[in-house]
Amino acid sequence: MASTGILIETENNNVKETSLGVMTAAAGQEIYALVLEQDASAMKEKLAEYGASHIVSITSSVDLSASPDLQAQALAAAVKEYEFEALLGTASAIGRDLFARVAAIIDEPLVSDCVQVNIAERKVRKSHFSGKIFATLKVNGSILLCTLRPNSIDPVAVQAAGELIDFTADLVGSGLIKIVETKKAGAGKVDLTEAPIVITGGRAIKAAENYTMLEAAAQKIGAAVGASRAAVDAGYAPHSMQVGQTGKTVSPKLYIACGVSGAVQHFAGMKTSKVIVAINEDKDAPIFAKCDYGIVGDIFDVVPVLTEKL
Q1: pLDDT tens digits, 254-305
Q2: Strands (DSSP E) along the chain, which ranges?
Q3: What is the pLDDT of residue 173?
């Protein structure tokens, strides 16, 4: 059976659901769950439950957490050690960074932000031209390097052995980049690109302080709060919250658009959402042609009621 490495990402010492989805994408392969400089034994039960035949704890004599260069070198060393047919990860901030570095180190092609992968046929599927079409690409490298869009594949439990393995990467030096400090967003906030539910406010939000209304609803269901470009351009929200062609791409299980018109540029950033709910007082807004459920009404009337019901 061909072997596939999966870069496991964690949050508060728990395996992220997005990484479990990547493991499901590799179903049918002998999966090696790769854990960078953390207590892999604490994750054994969860990783084995979702198909990890082997759980590799990657360490080194140097501090891997100090530099993404060193982390990438350690991953590249694991690729060589276990002769993976494929190396998969999440198209998150971490995944995008490390996989690009690994691809450069081992001189192999990389396909990012995919929504499907067929390891046996070395084919991936991803969106192009602002989400207007999906293309199937054939990768001809000696290894399939691929990152998958968060939430594009739902995790499915498949019990496996979960054998614990220790791997020490022989590294020297401090890396080209050194992490001096990490500043995180407000505690408890869900990352927008990885959130299973996203609530987005458009121009109709009218003021920055009105996002507290959306945040109240988001807290009820563990959602992240986003913004349309119109809202960002109006100064109601920072660019870090923007969803769309010139912002972030999200693929949640549920996307709630509040006062968003539904321009093609915005749709490009949330097209792969599983279920789309639109709230807009304009019954002719383009978003209603693209949603699964629509509510015609003022968001300042509808959202508080939604929050109360939640």
Answers
A1: 999 999 999 988 998 998 899 999 999 999 999 999 999 999 999 999 999 9
A2: 3-7, 10-11, 14-15, 30-36, 52-60, 86-90, 110-114, 116-118, 123-128, 133-138, 144-148, 163-169, 197-201, 224-227, 254-258, 275-280, 293-296
A3: 80
Instruction: State the burial class of residue 116 (Cβ atoms within 10 Å of its Cβ: 0-12, 13-18, 19+).
Output: middle
- The kind and range of the H/E element at 132 are none
> Which residues, 6 or more positions from 99, have their beta carbon under 8 angstroms from its beta carbon?
7, 87, 89, 110, 112, 145, 147
Domains along the sequence of the chain with CATH: 3-169 (3.40.50.620), 197-309 (3.40.50.1220)
Q: How far apart are CA 28 and CA 24, in angstroms?
A: 9
Q: Decide if 96 contacts 147 (C-beta within 8 A).
A: yes
* Alpha carbon 131 to its chain's center: 17
Please tell me whether the overall predicted TM-score, pTM, comes out greater than 0.85 for this model. yes
